[in-house]
Please model this.
Amino acid sequence: MGTYQTTLLGREKIAAWTMAFHLAKPAGFTFKAGQAIDVVLSDQAGMDEGNARHTFSIVTAPFEDKLTIATRMRDTPFKRHLKDLPDGSPIGIDGPSGSLLLHNRHDRAAIMIAGGIGITPFVSILRQAATDPLPRRLVLLYSNHRPEDTAFLAELQALERSNENFRLLATMTRMSDSSEPWAGATGAIDAKLLGEVSAELAAPIYYLAGPPAMVAAMRQTLNDAGVDDDDLRSEEFYGY
Model:
């Protein structure tokens, strides 16, 4: 890990109550797809050490020339300050950190399971995989309440169309609250769905990212299905 200074390039809304923030990539900063950074706003007025720092997975892939983070815009001191920062503002970052990295064996598939904004490390991984000369079977199960809440959905659908080794299965759990159409799957990711997906693959390794309760439930479901902890990797997203 290292400490770097960077600047805010801009921001955009990417889903309901969800923003992406684009940062300049500091000289010498390197990372692996799936890793995270700490964003530090300690030089901003009103920010103290307890609320000036937040960990975010990096959305961009290592080959890209900027760093993007994405977050649900909850009403916290950190996120209020981040939202109000003018473009060009200085920002500190510490990192990279995290070990939610794809395994090295290309003969074993990866099944990624994301809930909500837990999608962020997988976007980085999938962007990088699109440039990987060694094919690997990749499956993403992505659960959200509504299409309006589903960050990066259009990009993920495009990645599926362009990469024959990647399958996307997005599912919505609260379509009764949605004002947008959805012709895809509905309902929670459960043991039945996981069984159907894994049956098509030989010895997959599972990656879990999302709210802690969701990650714990998925881990238990997979353990109950006979998946060994050695084949499970996870990242819990607190306060997102």
Q: What stands out?
A: Residues 27 and 235 are 27 Å apart (CA to CA).
